[in-house]
Amino acid sequence: MNLKNKKKKDWRFHIAHKEAIIGVILVIINFIWWYGFAYGLGSKDVSEYHYIFGLPAWFFYSCVVGFIVMVVLVVFAVKAFFKDVPFDDEEEGSI
């Protein structure tokens, strides 16, 4: 069996593709969150900034809260959607 056919039939590639798509979606969510708060709230004049715990609100929401939200989303995605996949080659194990 050539490598191309082997990749098509291996069930682990289907799972790897699904998990890669979930990872890309998480990255897009993180970027939208960060960009929205950083440039949405941070585009004002400095004299109009609001501060939270000594940090500008745009920085607090984009970096501090964004980090916490992304950690929660990644943990949820890994626990809910990711599966444990063996890395061993099935053909070698069956011989």
TrEMBL record:
Q: Which Pfam families match?
A: DUF997
TM region positions: 20-38, 58-78
Tell me which UniProt keywords the record has, alphabetically.
Answer: Membrane, Transmembrane, Transmembrane helix
Keyword Transmembrane part of the UniProt annotation: yes
Q: Does the keyword Membrane apply?
A: yes
Q: Which InterPro entries does the entry link to?
A: DUF997 (IPR010398)
Record protein name field: DUF997 family protein
Q: Which organism's genome codes for this protein?
A: Falsibacillus albus
